[in-house]
């Protein structure tokens, strides 16, 4: 590669810049292993380069670009499983699966060109994740090469050693994924000037079996899409229950998939993706409204995408402060370089232990997610002691998560029951969503 071509690898969608030493394009697992064993310095893994938190920014690093490892290795229609290499994109995979009337359902406008390996590294969710979960929920097995050049195969029990670890424990080379039959979907639209009505409807219908997506649009985003300047709730059904079907439905989905590109064309290059409990979403969205921050989101998964221009660092800082106050988790963007300060020391310590087990020399994706502290664990007596402590920490994490879920349930149970008159008003709102459609001018009919 010449100097100009090499410089293309100095940045990604985060628009941060680093320095690339050399780029490798392995075609198979053996070549990946050889590169890992040959290179002594830092190695960065590159997929589609769509990350927004600097996950593949080099620091005088060698880069392994997996774009040539993009094949479907095996397909079993009876088991409804497919083994695919890490460099294939979700879009490519679904185009091929469509011929067999199947799909990989973790899919959204934010990740249609993302690679399989990148999505597994982030444990990505899609717009339909309220029903279908995250990538992890569809994985049978992952193959990856660790920092010592060893090929590792993980079963479901060990998926989290690599899934969601942003590539710091190894280079994902392939995965065995479950797929599902393609479903004929439909949608309905509710538009209003009252933000509270959006959350009222979403709360009432989000647990219904057929509902696969609840997309909220702010007024300013609706206007950019050519809709009337109102709040929108777009409900997708895994059935023909909605009134928007066929080509009209496909056109609506295409328009929704274009939201991010439209916002970028208007100068909104920066964004945040907090994931919140449903009961915290209205508070966060109201904060965005007060500060005139354009947003859209998935109320089923609890992820809100807030957008900022380059000169709005103060506004973005306030939103980040609000995210911490509301104890938001990460949505789809991951941690990368830019959000390491969001990770508490307890979680960072656990991640470091997993990292050093697979990559003891800290070669792969160095400086991503966490900064390694090699003093941790130096005074420990034995491997067995380290394993016991790690096991205890994992149990504490599970207990912490269960406690959080119980608190969420208490909040939900504590909400007041509506009066009969309120119940009728709420049902009228919900019934109206089944008759809402969009005409060619973006209006309701």
- Could you name the ranges where pLDDT drops below 50 across 5 or more consecutive residues? none
Measured as a percent range, the helix fraction is 25-40%
The strand count comes to: 18
Strand content: 15-25%
Average pLDDT, all residues: 88
General form: globular
Secondary-structure class = alpha+beta
Oligomeric grouping of the chains = single chain
Query: How many independent structural domains?
Result: 3
Strand order of the largest sheet: 11-13-12-16-17-14
How would you describe this structure to a colleague?
This protein is an alpha+beta fold and about 450 residues long. It folds into 3 domains: about 5-65, Uridine Diphospho-n-acetylenolpyruvylglucosamine Reductase, domain 2; about 70-180, Uridine Diphospho-n-acetylenolpyruvylglucosamine Reductase, domain 3; about 185-335, no CATH class. It has 14 helices and 18 strands. It has helices at about 5, 30-40, 90-95, 115-120, 130, 195-205, 220-225, 245-255, 260-265, 280-290, 315-325, 345-360, 385-415, 420-435, and strands at about 20-25, 45, 60-65, 70-75, 80-85, 100-105, 140-145, 150-155, 170-180, 180, 185-190, 210-215, 230-235, 270, 275, 295-300, 305-310, 330. The radius of gyration is 23 Å and the shape is globular. The protein starts with a helix and ends in a 12-residue tail after the last helix.
Task: Describe the protein's topology.
Layout: H1 3-7, E1 19-24, H2 29-38, E2 43-46, E3 59-65, E4 72-76, E5 81-85, H3 90-97, E6 102-103, H4 116-122, H5 129-132, E7 139-145, E8 151-154, E9 171-178, E10 180-181, E11 186-192, H6 195-205, E12 211-217, H7 219-224, E13 231-237, H8 246-257, H9 259-265, E14 270-272, E15 274-275, H10 278-290, E16 295-298, E17 303-308, H11 313-325, E18 329-330, H12 345-358, H13 383-413, H14 420-433
Parallel strand pairs: 1-3, 2-3
Antiparallel strand pairs: 4-5, 5-9, 6-10, 7-8, 7-9, 11-13, 12-13, 12-16, 14-17, 15-18, 16-17
């Amino acid at each position: 590669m010449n100097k100009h071509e090499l410089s293309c690898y100095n940045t990604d969608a985060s628009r941060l810049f680093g320095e690339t030493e050399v780029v490798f394009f392995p075609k198979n697992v053996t070549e990946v292993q050889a590169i890992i064993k040959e290179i002594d310095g830092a190695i960065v893994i590159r997929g589609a380069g769509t990350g927004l938190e600097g996950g593949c920014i080099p620091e005088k690093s060698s880069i392994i670009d997996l774009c040539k490892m993009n094949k479907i290795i095996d397909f079993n229609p009876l088991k409804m499983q497919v083994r695919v290499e890490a460099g294939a994109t979700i879009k490519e995979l679904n185009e091929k699966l469509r011929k067999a009337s199947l799909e990989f359902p973790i899919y959204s406008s934010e990740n249609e060109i993302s690679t399989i390996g990148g999505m597994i590294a982030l444990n990505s969710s899609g717009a339909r994740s309220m029903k279908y979960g995250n990538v992890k929920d569809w994985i049978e097995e992952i193959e990856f090469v660790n920092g010592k050049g060893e090929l590792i195969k993980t079963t479901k029990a060990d998926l989290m050693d690599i899934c969601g670890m942003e590539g710091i424990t190894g280079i994902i080379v392939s995965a065995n994924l479950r797929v599902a039959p393609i479903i004929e979907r439909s949608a309905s639209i509710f538009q209003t000037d009252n933000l509270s009505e959006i959350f009222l409807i979403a709360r009432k219908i989000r647990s219904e079996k057929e509902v696969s997506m609840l997309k909220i649009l702010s007024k300013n985003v609706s206007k950019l899409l050519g809709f009337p300047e109102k709040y929108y709730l777009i409900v997708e059904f895994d059935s023909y229950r909605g009134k928007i079907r066929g080509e009209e439905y496909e056109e609506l989905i295409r328009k929704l998939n274009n939201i991010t590109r439209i916002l970028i064309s208007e100068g909104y290059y920066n964004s945040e993706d907090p994931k919140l409990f449903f009961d915290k979403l209205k508070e966060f969205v109201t904060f965005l409204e007060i500060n005139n921050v354009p947003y859209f989101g998935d109320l089923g998964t609890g992820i809100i995408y807030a957008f900022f221009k380059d000169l709005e660092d103060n506004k973005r800082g306030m939103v980040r402060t609000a995210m911490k106050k509301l104890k938001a988790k990460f949505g789809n963007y991951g941690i990368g370089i830019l959000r390491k300060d969001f990770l508490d020391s307890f979680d960072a310590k656990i991640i470091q232990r997993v990292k050093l087990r697979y990559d003891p020399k800290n070669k792969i994706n160095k400086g991503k997610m966490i900064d390694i502290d090699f003093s941790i664990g130096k005074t420990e007596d034995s491997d067995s002691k380290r394993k016991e402590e790690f096991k205890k920490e994992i149990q504490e994490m599970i207990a912490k998560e269960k406690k959080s879920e119980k608190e969420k349930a208490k909040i939900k149970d504590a909400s007041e029951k509506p009066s009969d008159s309120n119940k009728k008003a709420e049902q009228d709102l919900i019934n109206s969503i089944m008759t809402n459609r969009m005409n060619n001018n973006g209006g309701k009919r």
